[in-house]
Structures are given as C-alpha cells and as structure tokens.
Fold:
Amino acid sequence: MTKLSVNINKIATLRNSRGGDNPNVLQAAINCQKFGADGITVHPRPDERHIRYADVREISKIITTEFNIEGNPKEDKFVDLVLEVKPAQVTLVPDDPGQLTSNHGWDTIKEKDYLRNIIGVFQKAGIRVSIFVDPVVDIVAGAAATGTDRIELYTEDYARNYLANRGRAIAAYVAAAEVATLHHNMGINAGHDLDRDNLKYFRQQIPALLEVSIGHALIADALYYGLENTVQMYKRELAV
Structure:
C-alpha cells in the first residue's frame, strides 16, 4: 500500500504567527505517527518561516516511522542539517530562497552533473534520495542518469485539472511513472495539492506509487474533522 507522509509545515506556520510554542510542532509529529501516518515530512527553508532547523533536530529524535526532509541542496546549511540528522529520505527540491511554495521540478538534463554529485553525498551517508520532478518523460529519464533512488512527481498540474478532466489530468503522470519504473527501476513518490478528492484516483492510476507527501490539504481538513480522523481518512483513500 502507498505510504502517507504528513507534511507538518503548516503546523509550524500557525505556531510562528504568534510566537511561543502553540501549537507544538513536536507533539503534532508524535500525534501523526500515533494516528497512523507512515512518515513525517518537513521542508525547512533558509528564512525558517515555518519549520525551523531546531525543529528538524528535535523531531528526528522522536520519529519512529519514516522521516523525510525536503529542501534545496544548493543551500549549504540544508546539506549540513540533513547529513547531521540522517533521515530515512531526503527530497531535493529546486526552490528559490523566497519562494512561497514549491512550484517546479528539477531540469535533470541541465543539472545532471550537479545532481549526480549531491545525490552521491547523501547516498554515501546512507540516506535514500528522491528528487522533485515535473511529469515530463525526458526529465524523468534524465533523473535516472543522476543516480537518484526515487523521483517525487510534482502534482499541482494534476490537482488543478482534475475536476475538469481527470483522465487528461493524469495522462502525463502515468507516462512518467511508466518510464521511471519499467525503464529505469526508480521508485515513485508524489506530492503537492493532493487531497481527499483527487488522491484515490491518482493512486489507482499509478499502482507503483510508493509514497505521497501531503501537508496543506490534510492540515486544513484536520481543522474540521480532527487530526486523528483526517489521517485515517487519507489512509483510506490510499487503500486501493
């Protein structure tokens, strides 16, 4: 079954809006695990506007499921943090420093040499590597040349077009997944704007999907349904 990794950045955003430690990010991570999440995802950015580097260190001490740290490896501080914490997985995302949210994947063709080198750094430390990519066949093939263990398909375009024509919205992702799994033996993760409406269909159409990372929609749903119930609701959507 596809694993659910809960991104808790939005919990940290709420905490930071008032200062102090309410809601408690560490407790949120513990609760997500307790309520059935298969992993915890964090995405520390250089300005620490949501998850702080100190949060990552503290969370790493209590995670008993999979810990996934996302971020831009062109920031030396990020690389140092990942090598210190040694999570189960690092997801490399080509964010600009002030970017509101991730909105594009790597150009794996132009950045092949850079990615190959930095991926090797993490793999040498025993950390599984996933790189964030758009659902473009040539880009996915290029990802294989970097030596990455997995790709994470950037799913905003799918989510945006799902209601209008879900078959058309998923087509590029199915093609990308086939290239990754059938031709290059890479694992597939996915994330960005996946929610309770579009998640099940995505999972059904991409049976090789190993993991989804979901933050914004899940945390928003938790305001209405409660965190425990919401984690279980998302888990059921993945139980195809």
Summary: The mean pLDDT is 95. The chain is about 50% helix and 15% strand. Residues 3-238 form a domain with the TIM Barrel fold (CATH 3.20.20.70). Residues 69 and 90 are 5 Å apart (CA to CA).
